[in-house]
Amino acid sequence: MRKTNLGGAVLLGAALIVLLSAIFIVRNDEEQYAVMTARSDHFKAITDLTQAALSALKDAETGQRGYVITSNRSYLEPYSQGIRDYRESIDRLTALSRGDTLALNINEFMNSGNEKIAELAHVIELYDHGDRAGAIAIIDAGIGKDLMDRARALSARAVEQSEMAFAANNQEVAAAVRIARYRLFFAAGLLFCLTSGGTLLLTYEIRRTAALAHGLEVSEKRYRELSASLEQQVAERTRHLETVNKALDAFSYSVSHDLRAPLRSIDGFSVMVLEDYSDRLDDAGRDMLKRIRAAASRMGKLIQSLLEMSRLSAGELHKERVSVSSLARSIVDELRAASPEHASDIRIAPELYTTTDPVILRVILENLLSNAWKFSSRNQQIRIEVGTTTVEGNQAFFVRDEGAGFDPQYEERLFTPFQRLHSSNDYEGTGIGLATVHRAVLRLGGRVWAESQPGRGATFFFNLG
Questions:
Q1: Whether residue 130 sits in one domain with residue 66
Q2: Is residue 415 scored above 70 in pLDDT?
Q3: Which value, to the nearest 10 degrees, does the dihedral of the CA atoms of residues 179, 180, 182, 186 take?
Q4: Cβ-based neighbours of 76, under 8 Å, separated by 6 or more
């Protein structure tokens, strides 16, 4: 009996060693899988940013052509936005590919894109200085087309290299997963054999308690099955939600991006009709065309807002120490320059700092400060305060105004897209700004909320993770 007991203890001890070894192997495989997955995300981000930079170049070229053809300076806005989007994408590409094997391809694409931007700017400069014939001659000569074709080719090559690296990395991931499965199957089989042997030997010794041990084993097995089933359901639902969210973001970006070109055509042709056929239209006809242009402009702003909101879910976060005070002051300066007719008293607390992604933080402050400015614009003087406070032991920033305010019972609707608490006839807007703030704050792991009373202004608070 002692030999039986000793044999069972040895087998169970060996099973414990196998179990600990299996746990160590699983953890090591998980770390390798996480590294490989991060590499896949890295290559995917490079592909997306390269395509976004090329798309921004196309938008800039479209805006330049529209301006040269129609002389309508409103086309300079998509041109300027395209330039900004291109530079933002290139800056993030440069940061992502630094020290990477793809850096050479990215640099070639960036140099080609910079040449294209210089050509676009040169044509606009000639046109603005009265040399319209020279500007059109450059366009007709096909210089810009050659530069764009080269940018497309270099972009395609960079994307191809990134996708090849992405595919190779995925193959490594698949191979690692297969090896991990073999290890787990082997460990599980060995563990089963050792455990079964030890259990049989010990069961032989404690035969009188077999019924109780069997009942306990059945209960534990049922618990493991239920636990495994629940974990699988949670994992599947989580993956489903992530897939749906990514699909929604991609759909929103694609639809918004594809709608801008028709809108520019509507606006451009409306301008041409007004300029070339104005004498053939009566007042009602001219008024209808102006309404068409106004509607196209509103739709363009809405699409741009949707694009900006969809971009918040893409790419990696780049956190650094940021001066909230300096960022807020620069935004306020832009607001004052855009509306010099409004008297304003803006108070920004000094030495406000945080560690976060500066690009997303600017999106948050731009929307909150623009919102405060808009809803205070009917006051004799716009008063806005930016500061910080402590809420439940955590630092929270706030933007406070003395504008129209809102009924607090509708606070939940504030951060829902297209939900407006004030008429668009009273205050213009797209209904996307605060929804963008909400998504941006969530992207940074924080929370945003508001306090207000009708006619007494509003205070928006947010903290960052």
A1: yes
A2: yes
A3: 140
A4: 63, 67, 124
